[in-house]
């Protein structure tokens, strides 16, 4: 039987649902993608970015976003990790083996709105992989919601507009098994199986904030001439093993 | 922290034996203030275990079963052997017969890192531009990774065979949200200010 294209799409989606089971929380971005991070927003990475500094293309900007979605009323009370409990890292592989050669380690102490932030690195990690300790050497320290400049490194950690954009409601109507377990999106049911036209589509993250860690530094600090300047970037959040 | 406090108290007691010091004022400006400063410093010690990971947008969110997300978050990007085939299987589930789609996406998305080719023109930065356009790569704040990802999987970016929609069109190759609600800044830290 020759199927109409729309039928094929519906069948394909059904196949996806059946084969993939409950897929995940959010397409493209990574907001609330497991029950653990849904319950603990400070352990949730929303997005990671790496781009040339707009005003100086010899410098690179690295971004790790966490804790989204924060509505404005929640934002002043939202905190990064707490003393000796959470470790935020941006890791760099500049040798092409998918193992970190340099790490940025960011930790926090104090209360929401005026936390102290400490950046260690970029430096060679004590250990490669999923179990890590804090590296020694120079630390850059300051407070959240403030631009910190130290030598050729800039650091900011604080509340910003969540830079991601998506029609999340439409997405969950297409694949409701990816919805979160709590909140208004958790009640969405399936259909129609299409995104919405221009004028009806809605950026779910409009007016939504996150907590962002932004680091800018000369690209030459992290690029390796031996790999023609090619490097890989990823973000992790770790918990203290007590 | 308790060690510091203990030492400062002990030092105060020793000093008191000789000089009768240790007034409240001394505590405010001397040993206690040092203790307070240390109290909000994190320790250099401790062991931390990875519980969350993100490299490329889309990869785990779209192509990895939610039941496996926790393992993904705890073991990537060191575990391509486990998760690469899961992603290919997912894509093949609805682009079966066009393995070039899964193979191409698998090759550019694994190992799961944002790749930067920093020797190339910074003006060509953008998600996957290093692979698809000989560009700088990385990921810009303004990149519409949703449409790019939807079009790569459902559309014709990689191959027209079996595509469900034209690139960046309904029903499934765009979400019709192409930009952030607030303009990004031109100066550090570039992300727009939080909505108060």
What can you see in these coordinates?
The complex is a heterodimer of chains A (242) and B (196). By secondary structure, chain A is mainly beta. Chain A has one domain (31-166, 203-239). Chain A has helices at residues 5-20, 35-39, 168-174, 219-222; strands spanning 45-53, 56-70, 86-93, 102-109, 116-123, 131-132, 139-143, 148-150, 153-161, 209-218, 230-240. In chain A, the strands form two sheets. Chain A has a five-stranded antiparallel sheet. Chain A has a five-stranded antiparallel sheet with strand order 7-5-4-3-11, with no helix packed on it. Chain A is globular, with a radius of gyration of 20 Å. Chain A starts with a helix and ends with a strand. Chain B is 44% helix and 6% strand. Residues 1-37 of chain B have low confidence and may be disordered. The chains are: A mainly beta (242), B mainly alpha (196). Chains A and B meet through α1, β1, β2, β4 and β6 of A and β1, α4, α5, α6 and β2 of B. β11 (230-240) of chain A pairs antiparallel with β2 (114-117) of chain B, so a sheet runs across the interface.
Query: Low-confidence segments of chain A, ≥5 residues, pLDDT <50?
Result: 1-28
Largest interface: A-B, 111 and 87 residues
Q: What letter string, H or E per element, gives the SSE order of chain B?
A: HHHEHHHHEHH
Beta-sheet strand percentage of chain B? 5-15%
Give the averaged pLDDT of chain B, no decimals: 81
Largest sheet of chain A: 5 strands, antiparallel
Going across the major beta sheet of chain A, what is the strand order? 1-2-10-9-8
Let me know the number of strands of chain A: 11
State the distance separating the first and last CA atoms of chain A: 61 Å
Assign the structural class of chain A, choosing from mainly alpha, mainly beta, alpha/beta, alpha+beta, or little secondary structure: mainly beta
Radius of gyration of chain A: 20 Å
- The secondary structure category of chain B is mainly alpha
Largest sheet of chain B: none
Give the DSSP E fraction of chain A (strand runs of 2 or more residues): 35-45%
**What is the N-to-C succession of helices and strands of chain A?**
HHEEEEEEEEEHEHE
- Counting DSSP H or I runs of 4 or more residues, the number of helices of chain A is 4
Shape of chain A, please? globular
Terminal Cα span of chain B: 36 Å
The portion of residues assigned to helices of chain A is: 10-25%
The global form of chain B is globular
Helix count from the secondary structure assignment of chain B:
9
């Amino acid at each position: 039987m020759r199927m109409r294209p729309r039928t094929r799409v519906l069948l394909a989606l059904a196949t996806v649902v059946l084969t993939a089971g409950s897929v995940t929380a959010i397409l493209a971005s990574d907001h609330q993608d497991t029950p653990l991070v849904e319950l603990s927003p400070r352990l949730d990475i929303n997005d990671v970015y790496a781009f040339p500094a707009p005003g100086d293309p010899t410098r690179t900007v690295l971004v790790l976003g966490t804790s989204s979605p924060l509505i404005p009323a929640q934002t002043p009370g939202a905190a990064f990790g707490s003393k000796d409990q959470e470790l935020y890292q941006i890791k760099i592989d500049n040798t092409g083996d998918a193992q970190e050669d340099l790490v940025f380690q960011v930790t926090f102490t104090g209360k929401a709105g005026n936390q102290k932030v400490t950046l260690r690195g970029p430096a060679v990690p004590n250990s490669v992989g999923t179990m890590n300790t804090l590296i020694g050497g120079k630390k850059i320290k300051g407070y959240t919601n403030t631009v910190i400049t130290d030598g050729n490194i800039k650091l900011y950690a604080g509340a910003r507009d969540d830079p991601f954009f998506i029609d999340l409601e439409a997405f969950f109507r297409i694949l409701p098994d990816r919805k979160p377990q709590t909140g208004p999106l958790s009640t969405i049911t399936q259909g129609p199986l299409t995104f919405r036209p221009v004028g009806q589509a809605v950026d779910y993250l409009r007016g939504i904030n996150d907590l962002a860690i932004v680091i800018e530094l000369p690209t030459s600090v992290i690029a390796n001439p031996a790999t023609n300047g090619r490097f890989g970037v990823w973000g992790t959040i770790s918990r203290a093993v007590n | 922290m308790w060690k510091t406090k203990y030492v400062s108290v002990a030092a105060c007691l020793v000093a008191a034996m000789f000089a009768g010091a240790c007034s409240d004022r001394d505590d405010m400006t001397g040993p206690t203030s040092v203790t307070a400063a240390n109290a909000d410093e994190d320790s250099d010690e401790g062991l931390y275990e990875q519980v969350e990971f993100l490299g490329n947008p889309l990869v785990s969110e779209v192509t990895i079963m939610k039941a496996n997300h926790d393992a993904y978050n705890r073991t990537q990007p060191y575990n391509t052997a486990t998760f690469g085939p899961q992603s290919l299987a997912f894509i093949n589930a609805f682009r079966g017969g066009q393995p070039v789609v899964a193979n191409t996406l698998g090759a550019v998305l694994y190992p799961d890192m944002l790749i930067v080719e920093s020797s190339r023109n910074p003006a060509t930065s953008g998600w996957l531009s290093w692979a698809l356009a000989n560009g700088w790569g990385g990921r810009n704040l303004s990149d519409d990774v949703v449409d790019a990802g939807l079009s790569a999987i459902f559309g014709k970016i990689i191959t027209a065979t079996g595509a469900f929609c034209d690139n960046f069109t309904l029903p499934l190759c765009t979400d019709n949200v192409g930009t952030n609600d607030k303009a990004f800044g031109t100066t550090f830290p570039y992300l727009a200010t939080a909505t108060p």
